[in-house]
User: Fold this.
Amino acid sequence: MSDWIDFYDFKHSVIYVNARHRDVHYRTIAEDIRKLVPSPAAVVLDYGCGEATSADLIAAACGQLVLAEAAPNVRASLTMRYAGHPKIAVVTAEQATAWKQSSFDLIVMHSVAQYLKEAELDRLLAVFHSLLKPGGIFVLGDIVPPHFAAPAAAFALLRFGAANGFFWAAAFGLMRIFVSDYLRLKKTAGLAHYTEEAILKKLKAAGYAAERAAHNIGHNQRRMTFLCRIDGK
Ligand SMILES: C[S@@+](CC[C@H](N)C(=O)[O-])C[C@H]1O[C@@H](n2cnc3c(N)ncnc32)[C@H](O)[C@@H]1O
Assistant:
């Protein structure tokens, strides 16, 4: 298992400064993803969904929602949270990538690409291409640009905290992240950054007609979301 998957495999990752941050974060993401659901019958995959505490908002707007999460403890908590939900299935990353071809109307991978080696990202782009139905859409979110990513992320978190009543917890949380494994992992496991041009080139090479969305999913608008359709399927 990758070091980043281990890092996220806490019941509550240090990335979220408190429960309020986690819940506002996932609600914001779910509200943004919900707007991208193409129809009420759509079959949707959220790959690397994390704690997804507001996934029911997405499920209410689609026909079926598959939540794929590689971290076992996070997945166990998702399984408990959504047990018995008629539209939500929780699966491993492997189960998601082995899904029947041409199954999904929408595939979202948000804030995951930075943790993947380039070859792993390329493999997933090819897999998602085959999993999409004709006319389906792949949304690649939270792509981190190369320069000043860390100060921009810290500033965006403080603003998000100020707007949602957890500014001081955010400031304290930033210090906690600073002394956590995050910086060590950044050096050892790496954190992938892409310019807009580089990721568009990669998406084109994988057979997608992609464009940058006006708005990044979530609260950090310096990062980028790409809307990708499949060429000629
Ligand atoms: C920042 S969280 C994103 C969670 C959620 N999508 C969001 O936007 O809040 C990063 C996610 O990437 C997943 N992840 C990290 N490395 C991965 C890998 N090699 N394969 C699959 N998932 C991975 C982690 O398990 C975690 O759920």
Notes: The first helix runs from residue 3 to 8.
